[in-house]
Each structure stands twice: as C-alpha cells, then as structure tokens.
Design goal:
about 325 residues; alpha/beta; six-stranded mixed beta sheet; globular
Length: about 325
C-alpha cells in the first residue's frame, strides 16, 4: 500500500490539469466524479442524477467508474477527477504519506457495508464458523471491503490468517466470474453480482456484511483540500444534490426507487433492481443525512488499526468537514 501511495504522490506532482470548469455562459460548472464502482448500492447518487438534482445546483456531472478505491484516489490526486467517491480509508493513507494537498471527506453516503457473502451451497443455517478451513475470494489488502470482512471474522473469533484461506489476487469486479469458473468455496460480492449468481443458481447469499458489521462509514465523497478551498460553492451544491437523493430513497418505496435509477443499469431488469434496492433499504444502508460524524471516523480508524493499516493517528478535523453536510441538511 505504501508503494501505491508513493506513486500517487508522484503523479500529483506531475499532473496539473483540473477537470472542473465552467461553461462559456458561466452558469453551469462541469464536474468529474470518479466512483469506486457502479452499483445499486449507491442508489441515492443515481436518484440525484436521474431526477436532475445536480442540474438544479448548476452542476454538469461527468460520472466515471474507477473500479477500485486505489484507482479513484489516483484520479483525484492527478486531478483527472474533481470529486472521488470511495472508502475513506484512502484519504487516511494519502494523509499518512505526508501529502499537503490531501483528500478531505465532505459527505458520507452509506452507513453499512454493501457486499454479501455468497456460498456454493444453500446454507440456510449459515454460521461464520462455516468458513473455517475453506477458501474465500476476498478483496484488495487495505481496501474497505477486505478490512471489513476481516473485522467481522475477528468479531466471530476467526483468524483471517490461520482459520481460512482468503484469495486476494483477483481484480475487483472479476471475483464473480472467478467464482463461477470454480475458484473458492465462497466469494464476497457487491450487487448486482450477488443476486445474479443466485438467479443463475451458481451461488447463494448466506450473509450480509452490512448487517453483521453494524454501522460503519463505508463510502463517502472527498475532494482535494485545494479544490474545496477554491470551489466551496461547488462542494455545497454537490452535497445539496446528494442530500436530495438521500431524502428521496428514505421516503419512497423500493419499486419507486428502482424505476428512477433503472436507466443507470440497462443490463439489469427492473424486477432485479427492485429486489436489490429492497435488500439494501431493509438493512438501513443509506444515511438520513451526509454528515460524517466523528464517532464514525474513530470506528474507521479502529478497523484500520485491527488490519495493521493505520501507521499513525490521523486527525478527524483535518480529514473531515461537516460544514457542507450540515447546511445541506438544514442543521
């Protein structure tokens, strides 16, 4: 991980072009948002896009998918993206490496993990002890999905090193295909992969990491410190749009939400989208507001510490700002 962060810092020194710019009429700001994955897990964001909440804030949003928090942070550091959406552990890593223009988290979206444990067998009486002696397709070392998986294992008295084998050499987004090909006994999957494996009878969801880990600050929006200082109006408008998306998902049915975000997932039928939205909604995935509380940040640091990824303490006051979230929520 240190080598990756060092490379990011080198890129930051080399690159200089900002993606944020205004249209010629000076009314709309073009913003590039790099998301860690394109998943129904982030339904409030897609509601904001589809219902025009960003346009209401004079933001022309360019959404790109980074396929991994490390790649999203690379885009942010190199200024190929204005705003990054990923696990906040990445901002801690960059800060720990001594960056002066570090990423600051300004809005939290999800408060539970969005991935699920999928088994080859329909284990109706699944217990975490079932993983002992088995092989699991996991995530990247130092990434939030993997750290939270290990956090749950330890909560259940299971050693991630000694009690099972976790494969971490499969790229993000390719684990479902690897599982289908016969690799491992279990896989940790986001949606829609988990549901699609079930529909094809190639796997069975036996546990929700979001339910078993409890409330955690899983994903948040961040921007480089310099960008926030130069464009506070953009950050406020962006946060306002996300808050409206949260308000919508927390006040509408799963089927209504699914209909709104369906254009974002043309390869997935509406019934499947509805099923997935309901799964996330039922486990209280989305926050009521975007305020990233200090207690949530401290929990994140505890998870990093247990995983051996927290080299030194990092201050909440530097890596999180709640000014924009509180204003968006009317607090």
């Amino acid at each position: 991980m240190k080598r990756v962060i060092a490379m990011l810092l080198c890129v930051m020194m080399i690159m200089s072009a900002f993606a944020c710019r205004k249209d010629t009429d000076n009314s709309t700001v073009k913003i590039t948002l790099s998301e860690v994955a394109h998943s129904i897990f982030y339904a409030p964001q897609y509601v904001s896009i589809e219902l025009g909440y960003f346009e209401d804030e004079s933001i022309d949003l360019n959404l790109v998918t980074g396929f991994g928090a490390d790649k999203v942070m690379t885009a942010l550091v190199s200024k190929e993206a204005d705003i990054g959406f990923m696990g906040s552990e990445s901002s801690i890593y960059v800060y720990q490496e001594g960056s002066t223009d570090y990423a600051v988290n300004f809005a939290q979206l999800t408060q539970r993990a969005g991935n699920f444990l999928v088994s080859r067998d329909n284990e109706t009486d699944f217990k975490w002890d079932n993983l002992k002696g088995r092989t699991v397709l996991g995530g990247r070392a130092g990434g939030m999905p993997q750290m939270l998986f290990e956090y749950i294992l330890k909560k259940n008295g299971i050693s991630p090193v000694d009690d099972l084998t976790i494969l971490q050499n499969v790229d993000f987004g390719s684990t479902a295909a690897a599982f289908t090909s016969g690799i491992a006994d279990y896989t940790v999957e986001f949606e829609p992969s988990a549901t699609l494996l079930e529909q094809r009878k190639e796997g069975y969801v036996v546990a929700s990491l979001g339910t078993d880990s409890g409330y955690v600050p899983y994903t948040a929006y961040c921007a480089n410190k310099s960008f926030i200082e130069k464009h506070p109006d953009v950050i406020q408008g962006f946060t306002n749009a996300i808050q409206k998306g949260l308000d919508y998902v927390n006040s509408h049915t799963s089927s209504e939400i699914a209909e709104v975000i369906a254009p974002q997932f043309p390869e997935t039928d509406l019934d499947t989208i509805t099923t997935i939205v309901d799964r996330y909604k039922t486990q209280d995935t989305w926050k009521g507001d975007t305020i990233f509380e200090k207690k949530s940040f401290e929990l994140l640091k505890d998870i990093l510490k247990q995983s051996g990824e927290l080299g030194s303490d990092v201050p909440y006051e530097k890596l999180v700002t709640t000014d924009y979230s509180k204003k968006a929520a009317g607090k």
